[in-house]
Amino acid sequence: MEKIDIQKVRADFPLLRREVNGKPLVYLDNGATTQKPKVVIDAITNYYSDMNSNVHRGVHYLSQISTDAFEVTRRKVQEFINAKEDFEVIITKGTTDSINLVATCYGKAFIHEGEEIIISAMEHHSNIVPWQMLCEEKGAVLRVIPMNAKGELDMGAYANLLSAKTKLVSVTYVSNALGTINPIKEIIDLAHAINVPVLVDAAQGIQHLAIDVQKLDVDFLAFSGHKMYAPTGVGVLYGKKDLLNAMPPYQGGGDMIKEVTFEKTTYNELPFKFEAGTPNIEAGICLSAAIDYINELGIDNIKAYEDELLAYATNKIIEIPGVQLIGEAAQKSSVLSFVVDGVHPYDIGVILDKLGIAVRTGHHCAQPVMDQFGIPGTVRASLAVYNTKEDIDNFIAGLNRAVNMLV
Ligand SMILES: *Cc1c(COP(=O)(O)O)cnc(C)c1O
């Protein structure tokens, strides 16, 4: 815990100093989006004050420096996830966009009638719906890896689902609704044993765990900037070179072409083939400030700190009568999802909000998870590196108060 200087970290995030409903803010909705450190906020201002210009186009000075800064991000992401090539990093709008890109382009080239795509029971809607749309279009079949009552995937059932019909596996690294960390290396290895590529949704993994795409041997990795201390509107799709090259382009437009005539258009090479149109330049450039920030703290230090906070919070919450944790996997990350007997999650959320405590309530874009547990939703407290034991104490006190009022 000593490795994170928490007072210094907190001072880096201006928004954490504000009050909400007359109370100091306790921000525990990091699974939805994280707050931004001053270095990222400054990078946004700096971009517009100093270099605003379109990328990959002009010969003029400003266009060159904004292009250089945008491409620095690509290489920073490459290093951060240890991709072999910088052109294997596609800059997208976010996780949803990255998964839709693969569903559309990989789907177009490689998925046929009767073939199967495997996802899991704990996916975010953005790793369910694109595949359903693809299956509907192609007459393909969606298969779902079941999970147990603790929120752990049934790996035996997964092994049985894999077959000659399987064309892709797409699973989340960490569940946003349950906090489960899936055995992603084992999932990948089992699929690779029958030559099936794997997409990993790392939207809840990238900010909490060290990820090395070469070590994992993952085929596609998707994540969002805004959940890792960067602005909204930027994300990443990592893909292995051979797969990306074999896929048709996503959207048509500027930047993704080599030559356009009315008779025939030839496509640009990687990564530009998948980056049509003007990107979110400011967010793209600022993603590199967020990665620098994470690197300075050290992702392993972040994980150790958050693990300790999670254990602290878990021990306190299970003492509250009537509270039931949803998601009790042996391997968990920074999410406390729970229900209170006889109380709607929304009512807890409203009382906590009055006390300045921000949590999320509802199905967390994972309705099938809620269906499996037979509940309409949960209250979710999700942690980031700037949360403290004091935040947890305030949250637990607020929750006690809410439970006493409502039960
Ligand atoms: C947030 C989230 C997504 C979607 O990310 P967007 O930034 O909304 O595109 C997908 N999967 C998981 C696990 C998430 O937590």
Describe this structure in words.
The chain folds into two domains: 6-30 and 298-406, Aspartate Aminotransferase, domain 1; 41-295, Aspartate Aminotransferase, domain 2, CATH 3.40.640.10. Strand 8, helix 8 and strand 9 form a beta-alpha-beta unit. The chain starts with 5 loop residues before the first helix and ends with a helix. The protein has helices spanning 6-11, 38-51, 61-81, 95-110, 129-138, 155-161, 184-192, 213-216, 241-246, 281-297, 299-317, 345-354, 367-373, 389-406, and strands spanning 19-20, 23-24, 26-27, 89-92, 116-120, 141-145, 166-172, 198-201, 220-224, 235-239, 257-260, 265-267, 323-325, 335-340, 357-358, 360-362, 378-382. It has a seven-stranded mixed β-sheet with strand order 4-10-9-8-7-5-6, sandwiched between helices. The chain has a four-stranded antiparallel β-sheet with strand order 13-14-17-16, covered by helices on one side. The protein is globular, with a radius of gyration of 22 Å. Helix 4 packs parallel to helix 5 and helix 11 (299-317) runs parallel beside helix 14 (389-406). With 407 residues, the chain is an alpha/beta fold. Bound molecules: pyridoxal-5'-phosphate. Pyridoxal-5'-phosphate is lined by residues 94-96, 124, 126-127, 172, 176, 201, 203-204, 224. The site of pyridoxal-5'-phosphate has 12 residues, from helix 4. It catalyses: (sulfur carrier)-H + L-cysteine = (sulfur carrier)-SH + L-alanine. Its EC number is 2.8.1.7. Pfam families: Aminotran_5 (PF00266). Belongs to the class-V pyridoxal-phosphate-dependent aminotransferase family. Csd subfamily.
